[in-house]
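Quick one: C-alpha cells for this chain, please?
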Amino acid sequence: MKFYLRIYGLIIAQHFKSKMAYRVDFFISIIGMIGTQFVSLFALWVLFQSIETIENWNKWEILFLYGFAQFAMLPAQVCLDHCWQLGNHLQSGTFLKYYMRPLNSLFYFLSEVFDVKAISQLISGIICTAIAVGNMEFEWIGLDILLYVYLLFFASFIYTSMLMLASTTAFWITASNPVLQFTHRLRDYSHFPMSVFSDGFKFLFTFVLPIGLIAYYPVNLILNGGSVLLGVIALTIASIAFISLAYYSWVKGTARYEGTGS
C-alpha cells in the first residue's frame, strides 16, 4: 500500500506539472465547472421558491440530500476521468502499455488522470450541506457524524463501481462512451427522494442501477433513523459487492484484450 501511495503521488505531481504548462486554460476550465455547479444550485433555489416539500421531504432535507450526493460522487469525479478514454486506448492499441509495467493495470490506468476540476463539486457539496444543516431541525451528536462519514465512504463506492462497470464494457463493445454517458446522466436522479418514483423505478434504482444507494437511502437513515444497523450492513455489503463486480469486469476485460492486431 505504501508503495502504491508513493507512486500515485509521483504520477499526480507529473500530471499537475503538465496542466500548469497551460495555466490559463487550466484555471478557465475550473472557473467554468464552478459556474456549472452554481447554475445547478440556482435551479434548486428556483424550485424551492414554489415547492416547500417533495414527498414529505422539506427543502432543507432535499438540499442535504443533494450535498451528500455531491460528496459521494466526488471520488469518481476525481479519479475516474480517464475511464472516458478507455475505448480510444483499446482502438488505437495504446492500452498495451498498461501490461508492461510492474503495477496493477487498473491502478496505473486510473492514476494517469486526476481531475482537479472536481473542486467545483466539493465546493457545491460544502455549500449545500452547510446551508441545510444550519436550517434543519436535527440535533447532531457524535454518533450521527460518525454514521454520516461511514455511510458516505461506502456510498462513494456505488457510483465509482457504476462508472467502472460502464467503462469496462469497452472491452466487449469498444465504443463504451454511450454507456458511460447514460450512467453519468443517471446520477441526476440521486439528488431526489426515491419516493417520487413508481415502484418499478424504485426497484430498478435500488437493485439494478443502484442510484438510490448513492444518497437517498444513506441520508434517509441519518435523518429518519429506523433499523440503522441493518441499513449500515446492507449498504456495506452492497458497496463491496458492486466494487468487486466492477474490478472483476476489469480483470476479465484485460485478460481477453489482444491489441489491435497491427
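The chain is about 70% helix and 0% strand.
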